[in-house]
Every structure is written in structure tokens, then in C-alpha cells.
Design goal:
The protein has 108 residues and is mainly alpha-helical. Helices cover 55% and strands 0% of the residues. The protein is built from seven helices and no strands. Helix 3 packs parallel to helix 5. The longest helix is centred in the last third of the chain and has 12 residues.
């Protein structure tokens, strides 16, 4: 996913080009990460700002282990977490409960 690669590399120019060409900014990769998650996890504040200013959903990501962009930024010690929280990022949001229930049903 090109938007994810640009987020990983912190490349705002490629991000802008992809967004102008209608890239799905809330698309998630196979483990549930979005471009916002990847940028937050890697401390790319300018990419996070660009995506959120383009109306990406700060809480759209939900990885297989239940983490969201604010979690990833916090665990990695990136200052972008403040920007995420100031823009409706929810540090308390997690899909882990659903994942736990899913595992329980598999084990039954």
C-alpha cells in the first residue's frame, strides 16, 4: 500500500500526491494498521498532521493486538502522541476486548 510506505518513510510529498489522487487514507494493511498508525509509530509528526488535516480517522487503526495510533506513539516515546490526543485520538480505545472474545470462542 503506497500510502503506508510513504508514512513509514515520513515522506509528506508522496503523501500529498497520493491523497490528491484519492488514496484511501483509512485503508488498513493485513494486521490492521493504517497510514496514521505507521506514521505515529515512527514519530513522523508532519505525516500524521497531513493525514489528519485531510480527514483521516485518528482511531481507525486497530491492530491484531488491539493497539491504536496513540498507543503506538506512546510506547515508542514519540511526541506526536500529544498531537494525536489533541485531535481526538483516544488512548483508551482498544479492540482487544473483541480479539480476546474471538480467541475465547476459538478455544471453546
Amino acid at each position: 500500500m503506497p500510502l503506508h510506505v510513504a508514512a513509514l518513510n515520513g515522506d509528506t510529498n508522496i503523501q500529498k500526491l497520493l491523497l490528491l489522487n484519492k488514496a484511501d487514507m483509512n485503508a488498513s494493511a493485513h494486521i490492521g494498521v493504517t497510514a496514521v498508525y505507521i506514521a505515529a509509530e515512527n514519530g513522523h509528526t508532519e505525516v500524521v498532521k497531513l493525514l489528519l488535516n485531510s480527514k483521516a480517522d485518528v482511531n481507525a487503526s486497530c491492530t491484531t493486538d488491539g493497539t491504536t495510533p496513540p498507543h503506538a506513539a506512546t510506547w515508542r516515546g514519540h511526541r506526536v502522541v500529544k498531537w494525536l490526543l489533541d485531535n481526538r485520538g483516544d488512548i483508551n480505545e482498544s479492540c482487544m476486548v473483541d480479539a480476546d472474545l474471538h480467541l475465547i470462542f476459538i478455544l471453546l
